[in-house]
UniProtKB/TrEMBL annotation:
GO terms for cellular component: plasma membrane. The lineage of its organism: Eukaryota, Metazoa, Chordata, Craniata, Vertebrata. It comes from Octodon degus. This is Olfactory receptor 56A3. Coiled coil: none annotated. Keywords: G-protein coupled receptor, Membrane, Olfaction, Receptor, Sensory transduction, Transducer, Transmembrane, Transmembrane helix.
Length: 313
């Protein structure tokens, strides 16, 4: 991904983040710092809890661990650099680092979406085929699911940074963004970027769109099966097993949907709004995902309590 051409006198890009005043940067850095600390602390606590509690060594919680690892990588890829811009005005990022960040953002967000899809299938089997659940959703399923998630979402987004890296950069090197988003970087080139735009659009909607469609189908089947339950309290119990996962999907897709809508209506909103939403999309779901499961899942809640008691003992 380093085979780029550059006619500028600099070997770096400059990230021109949307907050210009030092006072504004300080205030903006406070919530971002807190969200980063919350995301790191909550996800690491969740990983340790699932590792230490034998009762949590189940496929669904393994998938939750995988989701936590993705969230940690995404946060560390984006937020520390944004904070260094706010704190130290360190706008410079090397060409190679920029394209690596671009690849991680595109591939890991797609991995997260795909993980939600696999978790939706897990809930579908648990509700619609409970007797077959142990034979379908087992450790081998988790291994193959992880291989599929990694392979699909590394191979398909790979051309995005490669196409950007091969462009001929002969204009200014200032990226009007806090992060190395594909189109923010590509538009600095004096080459035709139509292929970059088309691949970004087609790849994004193919990966994320197919995941959302499959998640929607899974929950349609789940809802239909739940409405057929006759036993008293069975509907509430069945829905509660899906509640945490459904809330996580809402966090992920709502911010993504707002980000897309602001891009579509960018003439009516400030250009800084999509930039801010793009940054927040890398940290808010990461901070809230483990908290939602920790609060709503009794086994995880009890495991965290036991872990904290051991820490204070």
């Amino acid at each position: 991904m380093t085979a780029y051409q550059n006619d500028t006198s600099s070997t770096d890009f400059l990230l021109n983040c949307f907050v210009r005043s030092p006072h504004g940067r300080l205030w903006m850095s406070l919530p971002l710092s807190l969200l980063l600390l919350l995301a790191m602390g909550a996800n690491i606590t969740l990983l340790i809890t699932i590792r230490m509690e034998a009762a949590l060594h189940q496929p669904l919680y393994y998938l939750l661990c995988f989701l936590s690892l993705l969230d940690i990588v995404l946060c560390l890829t984006v937020i520390p650099k944004v904070l260094t811009i706010f704190w130290f005005d360190s706008k410079s990022i090397s060409f190679s680092a920029c394209f690596i960040q671009m690849f991680i953002m595109n591939s890991f967000l797609a991995m997260e979406s795909c993980t939600f899809m696999v978790m939706a299938y897990d809930r579908y089997v648990a509700i619609c085929h409970p007797l077959r659940y142990p034979s379908i959703i087992n450790d081998q399923f988790v291994i193959w699911a992880a291989i599929f998630i990694l392979a699909r979402n590394i191979l398909f987004p790979m051309p995005i940074p490669i196409l950007s890296a091969r462009l001929h950069y002969c204009r200014k090197n200032v990226i009007e963004n806090c992060i190395c988003a594909n189109m923010s970087v590509s538009k600095l080139s004096c080459d035709d970027v139509t292929l970059n735009r088309l691949y970004q659009f087609a790849g994004g909607w193919t990966l994320l769109g197919s995941d959302l469609i499959l998640i929607f189908l899974s929950y349609t089947f789940i809802l239909r099966a739940v409405l057929r339950l006759k036993a008293e309290g069975a509907v509430a119990k069945a829905l509660s097993t899906c509640g945490s996962h459904f809330i996580l999907i809402l966090f992920f897709s709502t911010i993504l949907l707002v980000f897309v809508l602001t891009h579509v209506t960018k003439k009516k909103v400030s250009p800084d709004v999509p930039v801010l939403l793009n940054v927040l999309h890398h940290v808010i779901p990461a901070a809230l995902n483990p908290i939602v499961y920790g609060v709503r899942t009794q086994e995880i809640k009890q495991g965290i309590q036991r872990l904290l008691k051991k820490g204070w003992a």
